Amino acid sequence: MSDPDVSKNREAVSRRAFMATAGTGLAALAATGCAPAEQSCVPAAATAGSALNPANAPQAPFDTLRDWMAAMEAHGAVMRFDGVDQDAYHTTGLFFRTTDKFGMYEAPAMIFENIKQDGQWFKGPVIANHQGHWIAESLIWGLEPIPGDHFASYRQAKAHLHKMLEANGGVYPQITPVAVQNERALCKQVVLTGDAIDLNSFAFLKTNPADGGRYVNTGSIFMDDPEMGPNFGTYRCQIKGPRKLGLNSETNHMGYKMIVAARERGETRVPVSIVIGQDPVTWTISSSAVVDRRVIKGKVDELAVAGGMRGKALDVVKCQTNDIRVPAHAEMIIEGYVPLDAPLEDEGPFGEMFGYLGPVKKDNFWIEVTAITHRRDPWIINALTGMQKGMVTAPMDCLYENTLRKIVPNFVDYHMPHDVMGVVAVSIDKDAPGQGLEAGRVIAARNPIAKVVIVVDKDIDVLSRTAIVFAVGSRWQPNPASEIIADARGIITDPSQLIEGRTSKIIIDATRQWPGEGGRDNFPETNRALLLQGAPEIFAEVDALYGQRLIDYKRV
Q1: Long-range contacts: 192-196, Cβ < 8 Å, 24+?
Q2: Measured between alpha carbons, how far is residue 288 from residues 108, 163, 281, 393 in Å?
Q3: What's the CA gap between 332 and 277, in Å, rounded?
Q4: Radius of gyration of the chain (CA)
Q5: 125-149: buried (b, 16+ CB within 10 Å) or exposed (e) per residue?
């Protein structure tokens, strides 16, 4: 396999040149660039133009973003587009239209080839919503999604992860990463230093007209601290020049704490490396609190946690201009340092996770870029923040549920939907008056995002919006089954707050109210429950007779 000219890989290209290459499948794209030296260069998935199916697609654990996307495509959860004009914000408008039609949890992943930004055409691809669909929750762990039942697919993923936690004392397991040489690391296929570095030559996007500029918004920011150990987290980075990035790490993030600790030690710079196009498990850990630092004391190697959750050690490689270890088969590594003796700079604004434009962030740290290494024709992920579900959520939900089982009486299930940030639902197997409000108080106190806490009975599926609203409409009395907390800890991205980080909250007890808490003496059964009592095999019989017809029905 001959190496293409590096400069041609990086330059923006004309629309006409790349429209002529349209039609190449994801499987062929996944095969671009040879595997590590000891492995074959035979594609893991089908060749160009052939239809993938789950049987011949790449399988978990996924070592690369390309394998992950090929598996998602094989399960029907990818849409591809060519010749997309992001100067006109077509990717953003298209994704809003997609979620309007399918909802956040059923919107497909998207791959954009040949995308226009700042008047230039880039080859791409740019990936959006790569873990948003319900089936990603199962697929990432090698579990086959259950056809026609996204909730069941999600719950089988949670069952898998709960077993993992139970087998490891309530934390996720660890497998030490394996160091590989540069020649085996896919992320080292192209190395850029000095004047060859130009962040603007890659397909990083400006997502919304009101954003402060183009962003690297899905990078895992790797740092290392002598006391806190290695860490990586997802912090947006505004492109401020060919070799300059803004860094928006909030005060509660480990990255921010590491930078401040280095400054207090008298250091003048903090080495950082930004990993783009990670394997799906590394991305999940980067974007959510999967490592419970209240349980695991001292230094935690989150790359080892990624290996443990995958059931296979990650290949890692040392960066070119610092000693930080990064996933060897990522799409791109941006290396640099945060100068601690230079003036801080403003960053933003940026469309936040609540779905609103956030303010300009004053006096933020920034990064001087010292090297970029990448795979040939790197794939770029762009998060449509506030529009898409960012990552699989079962790992964090399971960790949180382990805690809730200990402190919430008769806890059953919990869900914090990403498309209605600030609202959470919890179900309990209620056996005494007052337990609904008590459960709500626990959630409201512990979760800063939880501004509206809805507590329901165990027969209500917390994943179903219809079921939750049904319970609120038919079981809840605003008086006395409500409680308002006037001042509580909130999350700073909530645009309704008057004081940053502080919010009021409401608990809605939508469980059946007992006589001892102001409810009626005899609360009636639901029609569905009465059906099951009178015909206990009804759903099994209907599924056997008509289930495939329901699966095959195309929504209109």
Answers
A1: 192/6, 192/10, 192/371, 192/372, 192/373, 192/374, 193/320, 193/321, 193/370, 193/371
A2: 21, 20, 11, 8
A3: 7
A4: 24
A5: bbbbbbbbbbbbbbbbbebebbeee
> Which DSSP category does 291 fall into?
S
SS3 content of the chain, % helix, strand, coil (to 5): 30, 25, 45
Q: How far is CA 503 from CA 357, 479, 553, in A?
A: 19, 22, 44
What's the DSSP call for residue 183?
G
Q: What residue type is 36 in one-letter code? A: P
Tokens in use for 498?
């008057």
pLDDT confidence band for 382 (50 / 70 / 90): very high
DSSP code of 208? S
Do the Cβ atoms of 242 and 343 come closer than 8 Å? Answer: no
By DSSP bridging, strand 332-339 and strand 269-276 are antiparallel
Q: How far apart are CA 212 and CA 104, in angstroms?
A: 25
Q: What is the DSSP string of 89-126?
A: THHHHHHHHHHHHH-TTTPPEEEEEEEEETTEEE---E
CB burial readout 359-389, b (16+ within 10 A) else e: eebeebbbbebbbbbbbebbbbbbbbbbbbb
Q: Is 283 exposed, middle or buried (0-12, 13-18, 19+ CB in 10 A)?
A: buried
Tell me: pLDDT of 48 over 60: no
Q: Is the dihedral of CA 190, 195, 197, 199 positive or negative?
A: negative
CATH 1.10.287.3510, domain 1-390, yes or no: no
What does pLDDT average to over the chain?
A: 88
Residues 6+ apart with CB under 8 A from 123: 13, 18, 113, 114, 203, 377
Query: What is the rounded CA–CA span in Å between residue 85 and residue 81?
Result: 11
* Residue ranges per structural domain of the chain: 1-390, 408-524, 530-556
Distance of CA 152 to the CA centre of its chain: 20
Residues 316/63, Cβ–Cβ less than 8 Å: no
Tell me the C-alpha to C-alpha distance, in Å, between residue 177 and each of 165, 224, 284, 515, 524: 20, 16, 17, 58, 57
Name the one residue in this structure whose structure tokens are 């006037």: 486
Query: If you average pLDDT over residues 487-510, what whole number do you get?
Result: 92
Question: Does domain 408-524 fall into CATH 3.40.1670.10?
Answer: yes
Q: 250-255: long-range contacts at Cβ-Cβ below 8 A with a sequence spacing of 24 or more? A: 250/492, 254/223, 254/228, 255/221, 255/223, 255/231
d(CA 277, CA 64): 8
In the block, tokens 């060519």 appear at 82
pLDDT digits (tens, 9 = 90+) for 210-259: 999 999 999 999 999 998 889 999 999 999 999 999 999 888 888 999 99
- Cβ contact 361:346 at 8 Å: yes
Number of residues that make up the chain: 556
